[in-house]
Specification:
There is one protein chain. This protein is mainly α. The protein has a domain of about 70 residues: Orthogonal Bundle (Arc Repressor Mutant, subunit A). About 65% of the residues lie in helices and about 10% in strands. The protein has seven helices and five strands, in the order ββαααβααββαα. α3 crosses α6 and α4 crosses α5. The relative contact order is 0.11.
Length: about 180
């Protein structure tokens, strides 16, 4: 078995061995359509990593995402509809998610000063603290996984996935307009 040394000094399998493991998932799907099989399997492993890292802090990935979005937002608050759009969920699902975060003391709702009919969701000190703690745990987990790739591989994957993400976002917008 050929190996290479990663940035952490650990050995890791070369690309051919990794590719052979991917092919086991569904050998009948090759070419561009096989990409979705690989992405789906990758998504399952990513979700497991997120559960492992963020679950230690009592957060699901969607809850963590909302807290991180609020940390970066102007005045650290956003409309629930904007949050729903950003994490790709319905406004009804966002209402339930904000309810859970509010019960935990991580966010609070306040009237929108610009639109009296609207509400804004803001992050609390407790939300800031748990988001920062979860971010650190998640960072360690991501670095552990990325330690199996060299920097050049990671950059190439990132670039290509960015292009695919753009295609998926465009497709979603087009499909929404048609409905």
């Amino acid at each position: 078995m050929s190996t290479a040394t990663g940035p952490t000094g650990r050995t890791r399998p070369q690309r051919a061995e990794r590719r052979s493991r991917q092919d086991v998932a569904d050998p009948s799907e090759t070419g561009p359509l096989g990409l979705f099989t690989t992405l789906a399997r990758t998504g399952l492993f990513l979700e497991a990593l997120q559960r492992d890292c963020l679950g230690r802090h009592g957060l699901a990935f969607t809850e963590y995402s909302v807290l991180r979005l609020l940390q970066r937002a102007p005045q650290r608050r956003l409309a629930p509809s904007l949050l729903a759009e950003e994490i790709v969920c319905t406004t009804g699902a966002m209402t339930k998610l904000v309810d859970r975060l509010e019960r935990s003391g991580y966010v609070e709702r306040a009237p929108d000063p610009v639109d009296r009919r609207g509400v804004l969701v803001g992050i609390t000190r407790g939300g800031d603290q748990i988001a920062d703690q979860a971010a650190e745990t998640y960072r360690v987990g991501r670095e552990r996984v990325l330690g199996h790739l060299d920097d050049r591989e990671a950059e190439r994957i990132h670039d290509h996935l960015g292009r695919l993400l753009g295609a998926l976002e465009t497709d979603r917008k087009e499909q929404s307009r048609e409905q």
